């Protein structure tokens, strides 16, 4: 008999770092670098409105004439965010991330960002599953 598929809350990074959409790209770049993260959920008044990645920053900052001190996060973020609840099954989230080539899933509960599940978290969960460390 196999074990039930665990929920994403068991593997997500809780209380992820976020950024306001009004912040500059320079600020976002500094925040990502200092925190060693590649994904930032973007909030407006505490509500998820987008996601900013290192790749987004590289693309925008690479354009001629872009001043990272002047351009705001809202101009570079993706507004289509893969968001799931904390009880979403790990296999479904991993499958969707693989199929759509998402680098992360933002975990939202009652309208608030409570976690993030990145490809690094996915690798850790696979490691734990392969080594039978799941409770």
Structure, described:
This protein has 135 residues and is α/β, with parallel strands linked by helices. It has one domain (8-130): CBS-domain (Roll). 31% of the residues lie in helices and 24% in strands. The protein contains four helices and seven strands; from the N terminus they run E-E-H-E-E-H-E-H-E-E-H. The chain has helices at 25-35, 54-61, 90-100, 119-130; strands spanning 13-14, 19-20, 39-44, 47-53, 83-84, 104-109, 112-118. The chain has a four-stranded mixed β-sheet. A three-stranded mixed β-sheet has the order 2-3-4. Strand 5, helix 3 and strand 6 (104-109) form a beta-alpha-beta unit. The radius of gyration is 16 Å and the shape is elongated. The mean pLDDT is 93.
């Amino acid at each position: 008999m196999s074990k039930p598929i665990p929920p994403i809350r068991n593997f997500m990074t809780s209380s992820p770092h976020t950024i306001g959409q009004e912040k500059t790209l320079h600020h976002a770049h500094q925040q990502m670098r200092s925190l060693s993260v590649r994904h930032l959920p973007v909030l407006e008044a505490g509500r998820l409105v987008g996601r900013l990645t290192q790749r987004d920053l590289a693309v925008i900052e690479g354009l001629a004439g872009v001043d990272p001190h002047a351009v705001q996060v809202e101009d570079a973020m993706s507004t289509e965010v893969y968001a799931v609840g904390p009880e979403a099954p790990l296999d479904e989230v991993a499958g969707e991330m693989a199929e759509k080539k998402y680098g992360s899933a933002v975990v939202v509960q009652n309208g608030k960002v409570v976690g993030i599940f990145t490809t690094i978290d996915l690798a850790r969960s696979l490691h734990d599953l392969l080594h039978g460390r799941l409770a």
